[in-house]
């Protein structure tokens, strides 16, 4: 058994002192009060962050899509740059990029990632799914917990065939996708790997196909994720093709529930969100990516008001920081509604709801028993440096808000997954 006595620990939405955490077999066995001196003086223990939406390979796009020779640059032209990258990558490239991406996540306290995986093939003609194993191996090497969110992708847009780089995403039909999910479930190389079901989007997967994926997820106890309503043009194309908005189709055909996460919902109509949230559906926001791509600002008040639990993802990985994702989630809303304090709990606090987005709600979205310092959860944790100069004047009761609204990733000293510390992993590598 490993014992951790931090100076402070984030438990139940507050930083508490006098806490001892017992770790056994990769799980938190117990959390008990103590009078003993800390084993980790000057450090606070927090649950490891859960990154519910990532495309690891897009790390290699950093800086590439940030020159704007015309005034027509948008999400869709960025997507063309992404397709150019996609066509150039081998499984070794993808494995190496994913490993760097996951190591960077570990370094900023992210201990679980939902890897929304649609770059499947090295040889599109063979539909070899060679990238799937490369991503799982990269996660294993980085020691990060991963839910491989295995995406179905069959159309280039509503009624359009796949073209160019999109051929590497091709899952052909429901049965090809199902076989790939079964293969990924068998391929998990350690006990920190699981698989989820994914409808890439309703422009890439038609609704009948999506219904089959939803049924598979339910029958096999997997979570189901999809991109939804990130762009106005996507909603307009869906209405033109089907007569309905994407979220209307989800509500009418895909049986929303707590095992379902719709990613973005930037332009979702309030009445659609109301139905979706009432049914228990979840939303994943990716505030930094949505800002980078000029998507727009979602109505987070409407999401929270609907009862939908919100989690967070680093998505394009142009920047990897859950502290900054939390901050952007709140500050973007302040700009949107011209008021301070939007992601609030009943006590008027923002730090608890934002930390929940980055931990427990992300874990629930990925079907993981993680994201909290409590008995029975996996021992996925991070250490925060309390001795740095700029936290010197912060009261213990204000520390959560200071961390979320002012904290830098330099504060994250180490992270552990299943009790295995990043610092030990790096030492072994040397
Ligand atoms: Zn995405």
Structure explained in plain terms:
- The protein has 430 residues and is an alpha/beta fold.
- It has two domains: 2-47 and 373-429, Roll (Urease, subunit C, domain 1); 49-365, Metal-dependent hydrolases (TIM Barrel), CATH 3.20.20.140.
- The protein has 15 helices and 17 strands.
- The chain has helices at 75-88, 91-107, 130-142, 174-187, 207-220, 232-242, 246-253, 270-278, 287-292, 300-306, 322-337, 351-358, 360-365, 399-406, 422-429; strands spanning 2-4, 6-11, 14-16, 19-24, 27-33, 40-47, 49-54, 110-117, 145-152, 193-199, 224-228, 260-264, 282-285, 310-312, 381-385, 412-417, 420-421.
- The strands form three sheets. An eight-stranded parallel beta sheet has the order 7-8-9-10-11-12-13-14. It has a six-stranded mixed beta sheet with strand order 3-2-6-15-16-17.
- The mean pLDDT is 95.
Show the helix and strand layout.
Blueprint: E1 2-4, E2 6-11, E3 14-16, E4 19-24, E5 27-33, E6 40-47, E7 49-54, H1 75-88, H2 91-107, E8 110-117, H3 130-142, E9 145-152, H4 174-187, E10 193-199, H5 207-220, E11 224-228, H6 232-242, H7 246-253, E12 260-264, H8 270-278, E13 282-285, H9 287-292, H10 300-306, E14 310-312, H11 322-337, H12 351-358, H13 360-365, E15 381-385, H14 399-406, E16 412-417, E17 420-421, H15 422-429
Parallel strand pairs: 2-6, 7-8, 8-9, 9-10, 10-11, 11-12, 12-13, 13-14
Antiparallel strand pairs: 1-4, 2-3, 4-5, 6-15, 15-16, 16-17
Helix pairs in contact: 2-3, 7-8, 8-10, 11-12, 11-14, 12-14
The protein binds zinc ion.
Residues 53, 55, 116, 227, 263, 315 line the site of zinc ion.
